[in-house]
Amino acid sequence: MTVQEWTFLLVGLSFALYIWIAYKSRASSTSEFYVAGKGVNPVVNGMATAADWMSAASFLSMAGLIAFMGKDGAIYLMGWTGGYVLLALLLAPYLRKFGKYTVPEFIGERYYSDAARVVAVLCLVFISFTYIAGQMRGVGIVFSRFLEVDINMGIFIGMAIVFVYAVWGGMKGITYTQVAQYTVLIFAYLVPAVYISIIVTNNPIPQLGFGDTLVNGSEYLLEKLDRVTTDLGFVAYTQNTKSMIDIFCITAALMFGTAGLPHVIVRFFTVPSFKDARKSAGYALIFIALLYTTAPAVSAFARMNLIDSIQDVDYVNSPQWFKNWEEIGLIAWKDKNQDGKIRYSAGTALEDTKPKYLGQERGSHGERLLVNPPNNKNDNEVYIDRDIIVLANPEIAKLPFWVIALVAAGGVAAALSTAAGLLITLSAAVSHDLLKKTFMPQISERKELLYSRLATAAAIGLAGAIGVMNLAFVAQVVAFAFGLAASTLFPVLLLGIFYKRLNKEGAIAGMLIGLIFTLSYIIYFKFINPELNSSDYWLLGISPEGIGFLGMLLNLILAITVSSFTKPPPEDVMKMVDSIRSPQ
Description:
mainly alpha, Hydantoin permease, 3 domains, two-stranded antiparallel ribbon, globular
């Protein structure tokens, strides 16, 4: 069987499984649609939470960023993992004890204000759609390569699958679908990692192979990576290039953003009690660690294999994997020194933020050309999209076709599991918080369930349109979502539990300043003036990926200040906070 046939088989079987699970566990009430009836076992919820959490950014893009950024890329690993610990300890059990359906519902009741609820919904919409955009691009990349369709067509296929099981099953269907998706994605990530670890270091445990010697025993893997990358003009693989303040801010934004992500928080509303919320958080950490401790090894193996596979190879004899990805526009080569060989080195072709410089033109060798590349003949000749590394890694290592197809199925599972969770969170915010709790309190439960499904369908369509826009690499787009979550929702959730004096005026002011500041900063540097997107122009040297931490500080300061000069919350709200914090 060919790679494409294996892919059709494995992806098709996984899709059939997801849809069957959604049908068998379809929601029949708003409680089942929003929070799976609050009866999910902690182990099952831990697995579903891990799938919800480990998106296309974790599965596809994180290892690619670490592979190309080296030690700098570890900020994504540290930020996302550390953030989950914060969520498990600081927020999840208390919000579960509150016992409602959504994050905006908590904010609306804690701050005794429909206006606060609406602002929270607004923040949630910006966070969720930014996050979903990354998932849709991840799905498009997988399908474009392995089903040999256009990236945009791949996005539409993904939208259709999510539509079926998200609209049908709601949170109840998604929970059990995510258990299956976690099984698929973790198996798909670990199998090639073990294969390649044995090939490269003769060690079957990738986490140990990462620090082991190469098969020939001449030197350690990381020593060779440092030497090879330095020879090619890059910074050594194990050396930082970012400023310490930017490293700190990006890591902090990812950590606090994690603890403020509505679609992850709502997973802890689905278990029977707040004790089960703690248990499911612990199980989820174990399930997440399986992938996150493997990612650095996958990154190092991929970078080493990539260099060995293409460096100084005649283009006419370039490996098939290179031509496959070149065909869909995620790799391009320009023979700048006219020697017919692929020359991969440090330079501007690799440093472009996304493949906007790829054209349809073909060179004399049949290669896909860069559009208006720098003319320096000693510059890098290859553009490689960072999001393809995990998917291309098994091809580069010449693993069996079924392993290559398995990775494709895993990438799709990771993207769709997170997209589905985000879509349910969005639909709940619209139907439950905006309609039922604010503008249309008289509607029946049946009508509310109908509006939830309509909102999910509309959100899927808009998410696909955003994904087609191709804003940046998957992990970068997701990092922006985390920055928005850190600067808007996390402070009011944290203070709402641990600072009784915070009132509605402070909460609203804090969320708005965090949203406006962070969103404006990202839009300015990523869309209005992308040519200024460098440390020379950033505020205090903080990149758009890390600016959410500064937005969070502004939120905290303004919220506490405004609350200090306005009326304290009512007595019943104070008692509610005490009740949430009580261990009984």
